[in-house]
Amino acid sequence: MTSILTGGNATAQDVLPDNVESSSALVKGLKTFWYYTGFSSVSWGNITMIVVGLFFIFLAIRFNYEPLLLVPIGTGILLGNIPFIEGFQIGIYEEGSVLNYLYFGVVKGVYPPLIFLGIGAMTDFSSLISNPRLMLLGAAAQIGVFGTFIGAMALGFEIHQAGAISIIGGADGPTAIFASSKLAPQLIGSIAIAAYSYMALVPVIQPPIIRLMTSKKERLIRMKPPRAVSKTEKILFPLIGLLLTLFISPTALPLLGMLFFGNLMKECGVTERLAETARTRMIDIVTILLGLTVGASTQANVFLTGESIKIFGLGAASFIVATAGGLLFAKIMNLFLKKDNKINPMIGAAGVSAVPDSARVVQHEGLKNDPSNHLLMHAMAPNVSGVIGSAVAAGMMLSFLM
Description:
Elements: H1 2-5, H2 12-36, H3 44-63, H4 67-80, H5 98-107, H6 111-122, H7 126-130, H8 135-140, H9 143-154, H10 159-166, H11 173-183, H12 188-200, H13 202-213, H14 216-219, H15 231-248, H16 253-268, H17 272-296, H18 300-303, H19 306-334, H20 357-369, H21 376-401
Helix pairs in contact: 3-4, 4-12, 4-17, 5-17, 6-11, 6-16, 6-17, 9-10, 9-19, 10-11, 10-21, 11-12, 11-21, 12-19, 13-19, 13-20, 15-16, 16-17, 20-21
């Protein structure tokens, strides 16, 4: 550079060293930048899961399939499958990361009881109180739980894993997460995604089964309107239900205790402010955290396994079996009922605990066959009893396997 300043001629040695050094630093910087981007380590597994996440969001927005669940879960799947360099406390499985802290509520079973508290605060048990025999349909649908347990054992799952997987048969996402957090924490992601996927697809899965297992004549059966239920009955129901179910299955206390507590707040008339919080703001917040973290737990390297495929297959089979179990038991009940007191067997499909979607499916199918035959209130009875039944079934599994 001296020769230039003094008017002399520049040589290669005068300028090349600085140029090479800066060029090398630029290349090194670009390589470092590329190394820390997601593009450098993306796998086909990540891409597959991202497509699944986008598909969930599409179903929620385009077809309104459980949008409050599928939008958070779908977004969580996207978050969980962005490749990153470990060590920066980013991923959901990295101790100390924000997502890991939020995921604590899933792993330790904190979120499901809070969801049940909100469900209890928004559920009207009047239809079940007015016609208690319909509770049997909710119990019958739990055959899906025990059928799935046998199927999981047959496919080679360890007994605790089979117990956790079996709860998918109840079509109850929070209960499935709660049971798997106790019995098989390593399978929480697969079980939760399977349970919520089939809950969202209730309007697609159940109608063909209903039509296959019921005749036109049966679908036209009209049921007597439910009787009026007094306020005293509504207050007594959660108290009696809490004591009765928890003495039968004490291990279901976190779920059923919160469910009946939420319902008592709703019905007693003096805690409306608390009930309103439980059924709106609180359940919304917990649903966001639950859906997002469950979705984020589906990192491709953890989620895309042969076990996950088996779990999804078992989930589909269990949902079909549970729906068929409710329908079949309703038909059996009609064999012992007088002609003017028969039940429409379609409401047996609402015995799964996908509240209120299963009841809405029954209502829709009833109106398709007879535009003046409204079955929603009747279907809500087995639907809410299915929630109780799935929690009791989960409690029984925990009692035997823990």
